[in-house]
Specification:
single chain, 425 residues, alpha/beta, eight-stranded mixed beta sheet, 11 helices, 19 strands
Length: 425
């Protein structure tokens, strides 16, 4: 009755913890030989935080994350376009957290090992493919250490193996590489003074040039400096031949710093933030077109394997966690069988398709380009260049699409009720 999980990222580990909670046997296979706290900052929206709270991680999240107080958009002149409270300050029953991706992954992994034992995660095994075989599914793997091959048999298989998912490639053959629209991200962390509320997330600029910054640690008591996560973004001609497949390349400041040299405002100093980083990494901003099925017999997809999306709505990791919990709820309702995968996909694929398509141009940050088009980012009062309620309506619309509307989320029952388990026959 084992559920095989390909990938020990945020999606796979969240599903593994969920399986342990509801009494489903599972095993996780991860291609890297040892998990390390890789990545930079991410945001966890309240819809995902509530799921992690239900997994008993409330105290741990508070220790490694910053409870986000404010979300704001600013023009390339540093002028405030729109700000709003976030998390519990906005009226949610749960906080929003700004957090280091690696720290979250390590927390999930450590908690899983503590609860289920070290045997449940097998590192150093890369997925080759799978085979549906009657009442079972076979997962074919190869060792990343010595090339030895093995086959694992389970009742269901879940591909949580990211944007380059081998499981997805088999379900949707011939899809090709991720889609790059021309945007390049430079990402790093810098020890710097927190800005505005001290726990603010700021988006500055417009569609083809912007900076995102937010703290992912509390200020040091002695220096007053916090770890500030920042992302600089520039857009190029997508046919210009950028390093599309170079996913973790250390960057040259000269490639992007000149574009931000004048972004020195009374509340944040972009050039100082950029040059204060020890290392900067370059990533092409990519996604994939939505597909018309995630499930093939006893195999399905979650997280970035199912719906890789542009990181403009701060909900990539959040959606992966929600996927895992929704799949767990479906296992409770339908058992460890294909109908559980089909019901999960029927619920989640339309939702995530809307998010992927919205993030390509109509995400919350679309307001930045709207103001740039209207006034070049310069204004005396924002009300002079916007209609009454226009900005609030746009923000509320995106929350609804992404599944974290305040009223709707607060009113939802638990995805998985306390004590709910799957009856393993």
């Amino acid at each position: 009755m084992t559920v095989l999980i390909a990938g020990a990222g945020i999606a796979g580990l969240s599903l593994a913890l969920t399986c342990h909670q509801i009494g489903v046997p599972f095993r996780v296979f991860e291609s890297v030989k040892a998990l390390k706290p890789l990545g930079v900052g991410i945001n966890l929206q309240p819809n995902a935080v509530r799921e992690l709270f239900d997994l008993g991680l409330a105290d741990d999240l508070a220790k490694i994350g910053v409870e986000t107080r404010e979300y704001g958009m600013f023009s390339k002149k540093g002028l405030e376009i729109w700000t709003e409270p976030r998390g519990r300050l906005a009226g949610y029953r749960w906080p929003q957290y700004s957090i280091h991706r690696g720290a979250l992954q390590m927390l999930l992994h450590r908690t899983l090992i503590d609860r289920a034992g070290a045997h449940c995660v097998l590192p150093g095994w890369r997925v080759l493919g799978f085979e549906n075989d009657g009442d079972a599914v076979r997962l074919n793997l190869v060792s990343t250490t010595d090339g030895k091959k093995r086959t694992e048999t389970g009742r269901l298989l879940v591909g949580a193996d990211g944007i380059h998912s081998a499981i997805r490639a088999q379900i949707v053959p011939g899809e090709g590489p991720p889609v790059w629209g021309g945007a390049v991200l430079w990402r790093a962390t810098t020890q710097a003074p927190p800005f505005r509320t001290g726990a603010s997330m700021a988006l500055i600029g417009h569609a083809t040039q912007r900076l995102v910054a937010y703290p992912i640690s509390a200020p040091d008591p002695e220096t007053g400096l916090a770890t500030i996560n920042w992302i600089a973004e520039l857009t190029y001609d997508p046919h210009a031949g950028w390093n599309k497949e170079d996913w973790n390349r250390e960057a040259d400041w000269n490639d992007f710093l000149p574009a931000f040299k004048d972004w020195q405002f009374d509340w944040i100093d972009a050039p100082a933030l950029i040059t204060g980083a020890d290392k900067v990494y370059e990533y092409p901003m990519v996604d994939r077109d939505p597909i018309d099925r995630w499930t093939d017999g006893r195999a399905t997809l979650i997280g970035d394997a199912a719906h890789p999306t542009y990181p403009v709505g701060s909900n990539g990791a959040s959606q992966a966690i929600v996927d895992a919990r929704k799949l767990g709820a479906s296992l409770i309702e339908h058992g460890i069988a294909p109908p559980a995968l089909e019901a999960y996909e029927d619920e989640m694929r339309p939702v995530t398709t809307r998010i992927v398509l919205t993030n390509r141009g109509s995400g919350p940050d679309a307001v930045l380009q709207m103001i740039e088009d209207r006034c070049g980012g310069s204004f005396e009062h924002i009300d002079d260049v916007t209609r009454p309620g226009e900005l609030a309506d746009h923000a509320a619309k995106y929350k609804t699409i992404a599944g974290f509307s305040i009223e709707a989320l607060n009113a939802l029952p638990q995805t998985i009720a306390d004590g709910a388990t799957v009856r393993v026959k």
